[in-house]
Amino acid sequence: MRIKIILIAMMLVFSTQSFAKATDEWVYESITGDLKQTPGCKDKEASIKKASVGKRFKKYAKLLCGSKGYGWAIDKVTDNGKVVCEACEGEYEGEEKYRCHVENVVVLCKQVSRGY
User: Fold this and answer.
1) Of 10, 69, 94, 102, which is the most buried if we count CB atoms within 10 A?
2) What is the rounded distance in angstroms from the CA atom of residue 56 to the CA atom of residue 72?
3) How far is CA 106 from CA 53, 76, 82, 88, 96, in A?
4) Where are the alpha helices (DSSP H) in 21-54?
5) Phi and psi at residue 76, in whole multiples of 5°?
């Protein structure tokens, strides 16, 4: 009798996990934000390239979704925004150096829908 009660209790405990929601149901939200400036002062073309494409752009676009809270991930970038450059102060051997950042980047973020 005691074994039957233990078995029934175990069956109830482990069967509740099968009701968890599948991960194919997502909640989507669009976020608009600005990305951080490029570090250091570089030529204008190099600074624009570093700010607008590649690993740095993907990293900071991903951080926009992370700012929503736990569980938010990037789905896709819907608008790459506009690159804005500012001249650096100081002397750089007769050349102008710039720091660039991207404004108004629109990112589509997703999160697994919560609940059972």
Assistant:
1) 102
2) 19
3) 15, 9, 11, 27, 30
4) 44-52
5) -165, 160
Q: Residue 116 gets which letter from DSSP?
A: -
Q: What was the pLDDT predicted at 40?
A: 85
Q: What's the pTM value of the predicted model, to 2 decimals?
A: 0.69
Question: Which token pair is 58?
Answer: 């993907």
Could you tell me which residues come within 8 angstroms of residue 4 by beta carbon, excluding any fewer than 6 positions away? Answer: none
**pLDDT of res. 16:** 57
Structure-model confidence comparison of residues 50 and 8, the more confident one: 50
SS (H, E, C) 50-84: HHHCCHHHHHHHHHHHHCCCCCCEEEEEEECCEEE
**Strand 73-79 with 98-103, pairing:** unpaired
Smallest CA-to-CA distance from 52 within 7, 95, 101, 4 is with 101
Give the distance between the most distant pair of CA atoms in the chain: 91
